[in-house]
Design goal:
With 284 residues, the protein is an alpha+beta fold. The strands form two sheets. Strands 5, 6, 7, 8, 9, 10, 11, 12 and 13 form a nine-stranded mixed β-sheet that branches. A four-stranded antiparallel β-sheet has the order 2-1-3-4.
Length: 284
């Protein structure tokens, strides 16, 4: 249906309680990159909220293919363009009870639009991060779930923009590096890439996983461990990973320049390796 015709009930649990999960997907020339991994994470998130949606992956894939085609974003489109999709599942219409149990089926929305890619100039220059005052609770049951409740992250990004940065950097409540507001982060020292471990309160990024594979393929060592804030500021290179950004260099953190203040050689090499991985899997 057209965007203007899409409707969600006024008493949807997503609106009332922030009860819902989502995934952001990227299609390269009409082919979703690692859809299976995204759907695995979606179902883990649903399990964390005890949210049930009995629809198979093949059906979801058929819906996505139909949606891409309807928006002229599929593999047979008149113009080959990348697309950004969002798959949202909420707790559905409220039954009036204020509890996690639900009697009604979930509300499901899938949207697609042409992706405006990061420019080569921004990739070369990198972005600046500002450390947020918000701390990700280590023991929070939501820290590892991609819920539709994103207010802390929006507040962290807005605060970073006010400080002249491009995005916020989140620490956990033990003072360790966690993640960006919508990305995972990594540092480079010599021939080794290090990124916060999934044992901490961070989201298991699908792109993060693929980038680590790409780094190993390019000949770099990979460490998943605790990262201290000082390590980011003293690292040779820092980069962020996300579905939309892919691999994006960080040029400064809290006003302190990282490396030589632009995309580093290792970051560029890992990004190139990641794009080869994408090309191989999407047959682009």
């Amino acid at each position: 249906m057209a965007r203007a015709d899409a409707r969600v009930p006024a008493l949807d649990r997503g609106l009332l309680f922030g009860d819902g999960v989502f995934e952001t997907l990227r299609a390269y020339g009409g082919v979703i990159f690692r859809l299976e991994r995204h759907l695995e994470r979606l179902r883990r998130s649903m399990d964390g909220l005890e949210l049930r949606w009995e629809v198979g992956d093949a059906t979801i894939r058929s819906w996505i293919d139909e949606l891409l085609a309807a928006n002229n974003l599929g593999p047979d489109a008149s113009e080959r363009r990348d697309a950004r999709l969002r798959l949202t599942v909420t707790g559905g219409l409220s039954d009036g009870r204020v509890r996690l149990a639900r009697d009604n089926p979930p509300t499901v929305l899938i949207s697609a639009e042409a992706l405006v890619p990061v420019s080569d100039a921004v990739y070369a220059a990198g972005i600046a991060l500002a450390t947020s005052d918000f701390r990700q609770p280590w023991d929070s049951p939501l820290a590892r779930i991609k819920t539709i409740h994103r207010l802390e992250y929006l507040m962290a990004r807005e605060a970073a923009l006010r400080r002249g940065a491009d995005d916020g950097l989140i620490l956990d409540d033990r003072g360790h590096v966690a993640e960006g507001t919508a990305s995972n982060v990594a540092i480079v020292r010599g021939a080794t890439v290090a990124t916060p471990s999934l044992d901490g309160p961070i989201l298991a990024g699908v792109t993060r996983e693929a980038v680590l594979e790409a780094a190993r393929s390019a000949g770099y060592g990979v460490e998943e461990r605790t990262i201290e804030p000082d390590e980011l500021r003293s690292a040779e290179e820092v980069f962020a990973t996300s579905t939309s950004w892919e691999v994006l260099a960080v040029r400064a953190i809290d006003g302190v320049m990282v490396g030589d203040g632009k995309q580093g050689v290792v970051t560029a090499a890992i990004h190139a390796s990641f794009r080869r991985l994408v090309a191989a899997e999407t047959r682009r």
